[in-house]
Known about the structure:
Strand order of the largest sheet: 1-2
Number of domains: 2
Helix content: 55-70%
Largest sheet: 2 strands, antiparallel
Distance between the termini: 19 Å
Mean pLDDT: 75
Radius of gyration: 20 Å
Oligomer: single chain
Amino acid sequence: MINKKVNNKYFVVTVDTESDDAWLNPDKIKLDNFEEIPRFQNLCEKYNIIPTYLLTYEYAVYKPAVEFFKRNETIYFMCFRFAGGGGTPFPIQNVLPAIFNMSVKNYIIATFIGIIPTTFVTAALGSGIEKIIDQNAELNFFSAFLSPEIYLPIVGFFTLLLIALLLKNRIFK
Length: 173
């Protein structure tokens, strides 16, 4: 997921949520640290950073955690889809909403909106490369990139990304 730009670089914040002191006391599962996640989320939102949360089983069934993620499930899943699932195989991506009991309506909306940009760019780039190959032109990076069939989808993708970031800043202040 693309987040806050710092020194001309983008970075991802991944939060590994697991039970407190699970390595030292595996038989005493405590989730007191969860109380800090909403505060951390607010801090991230203040600086336009969208964190990615990795949940252990204890958190996935912990009622306050489930409620926290449930409030924002469409946004989280849409960003997950937009980022290509973070490398997660597509069949597993489709099981995650069932594990977290995501509503079908939110799943469809998040998938539809989150998947369109990357699908469009991938199909348009493939079509552009096919046209270059059909012309029997020499395939090198610069001539391919300067072809409108290649650079227009990329520009369109980044335009959508910019619009999404602007809307996010306006809607989710």
